[in-house]
């Protein structure tokens, strides 16, 4: 199992520290992988740099010397196989849009990783962006330099005065008065120097005191406060109340962009408001604003705040900081909501007060003034009642459109109110009184205790409840599933304790869930009952399922297969090839097919044919692969026996053909001497047929040798242009129907197997002759492209259909509609294998009725 894919490595690697893993391939240092934090600090979120050299992904900064420091550190860690910590250095990197470079200072730690404890295989590099820290240090350094410059100027003044003093002493008698004046000036300068030093010291103390005072003001403020610096909104000096709202500690936020700490704010209005403050320099304050806050545990909570953004200006009247002040009023808003929920209770109270008011006004004139006040209050409450009625009607419409029912139960009185939609769910009468007993009578009996336990817990703990259960509709006798969600409302002066909630018909969801479970059971039963090896992987290429056939062949338990897989059991010669097939398919999310040998539990290798099909979710997103493998060991053994037979027969046929060829050549010589033109023509045709038969048998022999691993490539230096001329001349001797032309600009020396490359070119020329009409032209082109030679053969023949192009180089494959042309479909297959053994490529471009161009390229120099 690859360490980089293990869950433990990912959990340690994916943290808040920017990390990257480099291959220890000096001097390229290829990028293997990196975490999300590294993407953010290096602006590589929108570009992929894996597999690139470090210097390609981040071009060397030759001006500031950072590249030399980093390269020296990487080389030292690789060479000495020990951890290296580099001093801070500057290394500018491309910006997010890649149009400019941005200044960056880095603190680097390089940890070599070695698989054998001796030589480093890769390097784990921790990269800390200290640009802001360096900038602050530079500001302080500039301030100290100015102070030092002033001191130097004063010291220089002292030196000049001392020199003048010496000159005055030398002429003491003549310049005594002048000397006294200069002494007085010196004293005044010293006094001025001390005064300047005192002012600088006082200014420094004032700055430190101001900063400390600002820290104390922010940290002791009764509301949440923090400073946001610059256009990047860097968090500085957040006070404890702000950290409490954020649910984070100081280390997790200070010195970071607020949008990096809270990515969810990017889609809200706050970044734009902050940008407006920086742009206009005007204060912004807004009350009771809802904000979604993402906590470290992944929870997103809605809070309500009063906030203000106050600009803080620098000496040049530019906004340098924004003081963000936040007052969490979530509790007050929630209380307000609860107050609004109590309006219905106030309505009942108002009605009772109105009735009492009428009685008191009729019997007691002394309370007339009070009655008028109550009347006014009644009118106000009536308006509120109207508003609540409208709200209630809107809620009813929303519940009706959302297919929801509502209910209310008073456990103490047994009073039960239920909406018409809920009556419809339970199959109850649309009108008339309904009791709780009527509802529970529809519940499937074994679920009654679940409902009762949920009701008791809700009453006892004053907590919401959520329960699902099946019912049998009273009217239709059909089974339905409902979900009941609600909460317990405590007793008030006007109304007893009761349950309030909604009822949802979830029958379709339950039926879909059951259908899905049945489908999964059928798949699992089918997978476990077959001899085919079935495996399922997710979108990250991690295995999620193996059927029992995998355990039977590998001897490993299901848990072991899920944790470690089976790739280590693949034969060493097949492992890399099969993994490349799988990874290429996975990257492009395409089906794949591959053969490989697997070590079974008896310690023997068996041949498997694997086919993988990509899976996709309903929304079209990639879900992983399902693969099936079958044992083709017997097919492989049959194929080996067939190849042995073909090789034996082909070898036996070569002996009589060699004799026939010799006799035909002797007869050709006699016919020439005797001027027997008819016999010479017949013998020439016979000799051509013998050559075709010899070529065909050699092809079968080479295929047999290729598949048994005995086809040797014996490379040597030779002139490719000379070989092409020889092969064209030989072709002209045995065919007279086509004109073959060669296009080559210069002599080409190449290192390859001359005979094998010659057979490839001969096969392409032979095909061009066979599949094109007489008296047409065949063009052979040879040219150099970089370090490769490219040879192409172009004819004006019948062309090839698009559906045949992909299979043209398969063994024994022949185009179906041209079986009248002689051949067995092994020439192009053998040619492709020879070119591949030379680390080259072969291909064809063609269109039906317009001719074809076959081409191949091989390296010019390769040992």
Total helices: the number is: 26
Question: What characteristic shape results from the CA principal axes?
Answer: flat
The unreliable regions are: 818-822
Sheet with the most strands, sense and barrel status: 6 strands, antiparallel
Task: Indicate the percent of residues in helices.
Answer: 40-55%
The whole-angstrom Rg is 45 Å
| Whole-number mean pLDDT | 78
Number of strands: 30
Q: For the terminal residues, how far apart are their CA atoms?
A: 34 Å
The portion of residues forming beta strands comes to 15-25%
Structural class: alpha+beta
Overview of this protein structure:
The chain has 863 residues and is of the alpha+beta class. It has 26 helices and 30 strands. Strand 11 (284-294) and strand 12 (300-313) form a beta hairpin. It is flat and about 155 Å long. Residues 818-822 have low confidence and may be disordered.
Notable characteristics:
about 850 residues, 30 strands, alpha+beta, five-stranded antiparallel β-sheet, six-stranded antiparallel β-sheet
Task: Outline the fold blueprint.
Elements: H1 7-13, E1 19-23, E2 31-34, H2 36-41, H3 54-57, H4 66-80, E3 84-85, E4 89-90, E5 93-94, E6 101-102, E7 105-113, E8 122-129, H5 131-170, H6 176-220, E9 224-229, E10 234-236, H7 240-246, H8 250-253, H9 258-261, H10 270-280, E11 284-294, E12 300-313, E13 319-328, H11 330-341, H12 343-363, H13 368-401, E14 404-410, E15 415-418, H14 420-426, H15 436-440, H16 448-461, E16 465-472, E17 479-489, E18 498-505, H17 507-529, E19 533-537, E20 543-546, H18 548-554, H19 558-564, H20 572-588, E21 592-599, E22 605-616, E23 622-631, H21 633-673, H22 677-707, E24 716-719, H23 720-734, E25 739-744, E26 749-752, H24 754-770, E27 777-785, E28 788-794, H25 802-805, H26 827-837, E29 841-846, E30 852-859
Parallel strand pairs: 25-27
Antiparallel strand pairs: 1-2, 1-8, 3-7, 4-7, 5-6, 7-8, 9-10, 9-13, 11-12, 12-13, 14-15, 14-18, 16-17, 17-18, 19-20, 19-23, 21-22, 22-23, 24-26, 27-28, 28-30, 29-30
